[in-house]
Specification:
single chain; 311 residues; two-stranded antiparallel ribbon
Length: 311
């Protein structure tokens, strides 16, 4: 009998190529759809968690959320299914140019963070997606560079909605886990926050892209407690690389959610009003963009808006 070569591992009809990443709850695999001759990303719930009904339900809820949200800057789910071993999985489009976290790491070596106008353009794109997410009543709860993927057309995409109900904070977690989390996440637990915590995390991510470091991070430090203390008590940071945005950080990273920008559309308006240019892929008008008020008006706190319900 001839040698047919190694047996290909499959998830459903998809041929697995390699792991793209793994966490405590799930692994994401790069796979090939032979019928369509296309690569996809497949997120599979870990075998041990597949037997936990609560975790299993939340995993499937994540897939349903992504399936329903139709926006170019949100990763789409195409298939939801279960393996022969009973592990739920969902099939997504593959953003094949890595994450913003990986881009930051590569730029850190050259000492060149993102150009301010480029970073602001990416933030506007993500905020327009976030407005759609919030309109669905969903709070992402984990916006950070590693959860923002880059597609082959250069567009950025929000991914990983897997903690719509998130584990509570713990002293055993290192600082990198929460370096973009809002103060209320540390103080009240992540299930207590609302859409304004997402807006804080998006602004924190923008700061990271421009400055090269997250607002309260210190190189080499992994202490959750020390980060907590700075996020809650330290003055709001600024960056010398974008001095014209100092007023923006004061409000976007305000410790009290009622003093922040209250909607994604409001953040889009103020970033547009600050006069930043955007990359060509972001030039097209969006129905969510509004005529921008003056920066001075937008940098003053407005009354809190009612928050959408969390997923």
């Amino acid at each position: 009998m001839g040698d047919d070569g190694p047996v290909q591992r499959r998830i459903g009809k998809y041929v697995v190529e390699r792991a793209l990443g793994a966490g405590s709850f799930a692994t994401v695999w790069l796979a090939h759809d032979e019928l369509l001759d296309d690569r996809v990303a497949i997120k599979v719930l870990a075998e041990n968690w597949s037997r936990n009904e609560d975790v299993r339900r939340r995993f499937i809820d994540e897939a349903k959320i992504l399936r329903r949200i139709d926006h170019d800057s949100v990763i789409r789910v195409h298939v939801i299914d279960t393996t022969e071993d009973g592990q739920p999985y969902f099939v997504m489009g593959w953003a094949d140019r890595g994450s913003l976290h990986e881009r930051l790491l590569s730029r850190r070596g050259s000492g060149a963070p993102f150009d301010t106008s480029h970073a602001v353009g990416l933030a506007v794109e993500l905020l327009e997606a976030l407005a759609v997410v919030h309109d669905f009543g969903v709070v992402h709860r984990d916006i950070k560079p590693s959860n923002i993927l880059v597609a082959d057309d250069g567009r950025v995409k929000l991914s990983d909605f897997g903690i719509a109900v998130i584990r509570s904070t713990s002293a055993t977690l290192n600082a990198a886990t929460f370096e973009h989390a809002a103060p209320e996440v540390f103080l009240n637990g992540a299930t207590k926050n609302d859409h304004r915590s997402d807006l804080y995390s998006l602004a924190s991510t923008l700061f990271n892209l421009i400055d090269g470091s997250a607002p309260y991070s210190i190189a080499g430090e992994r202490s959750h407690e020390a980060l907590l203390h700075r996020v809650v008590n330290a003055p709001i940071p600024t960056t010398d690389l974008a001095p014209h945005m100092n007023g923006f950080w004061t409000r976007a990273l305000a410790k009290d959610p009622t003093e922040r920008f209250q909607t994604a559309a409001e953040l889009v308006a103020v970033l547009t009003a600050l006069g930043r240019d955007t990359p060509p892929s972001l030039q097209s008008a969006s129905p969510r963009r509004q005529a921008a008020p003056t920066p001075a008006a937008l940098l003053s706190p407005s009354p809190a808006s009612p928050s959408p319900a969390a997923a």
